[in-house]
Amino acid sequence: MDYRVDVAFEPRYELLSSLHTMICRKSHKKIDLTPAWVKDTLKRITPEFASILGDMEVDGDWKITYLLAYLCPDGASPEEFLAWLEAKTPGDLYELIAEYSQQFPKDMGQFRSRTLTVLSGWHEQYFRKLEPEVIGALRSEANERTAELAYAEPLAFIERTTNGLTFMPKEGLEKLVLVPQYHFQPMNVIYHFGKITLCHYSARIYLGGETDFPPHEYRMIRALAEQSRLKILRYLSGGPRTFTEIVRHLKLSKGITHDHVSKLRSGGFIRAHFDGEAVSEYSLRPEMLDVMHRKLVDYIVN
């Protein structure tokens, strides 16, 4: 493998993850926090700020925000990150970003101002009031994964940590950074910046209202409860396939096929092979069928 792997967590990363979740609230049915979290959070923020967030999109500028959060000095709190960003001139930001990407916001000064407004507002009205258990659980996850990485085989470690993601070597890629996230579970956020790829992965952490059968394990069962998904798994048993090949095999629309593939990915049954930010192909993780069987038996019999 031509790049090294790192596990990192700072609260400012979850500041972005939580805001990312709110920006993508139209996809609330796909996240574990459920629509109730969106409704409760909207009650906690001002109508004016809610309107600002309603106009935001996950676009190229938002992608740059993730890069800046990573480039901020280690150990910086959300408040220190915001102060660090405020102290940077547009010229400073151009220099920072240029080392990793040649895609810049159209107006760096406007980007900086809007980013500060949105992140500061989100931190003040939501994130600073977040239950400390969330940050504690994410720190523990990162510490445990870091300890495991010291002796694990890297490729197997990446796949196990991310529940089925693999990353192809790319020219110039030096480091893959794995960042556990809570709010956007079970989704992942993956951005590539030349030297580094940032993967904010679903940490499979659930706080409050725990059940005997965790959501990610229940998701495994639901992922298999559909004939087309079983057909995809059987097709992938013959080897890796592209998304286009899967669509042709199922003879379904791209949208419906994508939904089936997403549910199988969330359940951990298929491996997504990333080339930068794009998935090049999918392959079967047959061992996860045994994992699901053992969990069911342990729950029902034991």
From TrEMBL:
Keywords from the named record: DNA-binding
Keyword Oxidoreductase attributed: no
**By what name is this protein known?**
ArsR/SmtB family transcription factor
The UniProt record lists the HTH arsR-type domain at 209-302
Q: Which SUPFAM superfamilies match?
A: Winged helix' DNA-binding domain
* One Pfam family from the record: HTH_5
User: Does DNA-binding appear among the keywords?
Assistant: yes
The cross-references to Gene3D superfamilies, in alphabetical order and at most eight, read: Winged helix-like DNA-binding domain superfamily/Winged helix DNA-binding domain
InterPro entries xref list: ArsR-like_HTH (IPR011991), HTH_ArsR_DNA-bd_dom (IPR001845), WH-like_DNA-bd_sf (IPR036388), WH_DNA-bd_sf (IPR036390)
In this entry, which stretches build a coiled coil?
Answer: none
* Origin superkingdom: Bacteria
Organism of origin is Paenibacillus timonensis
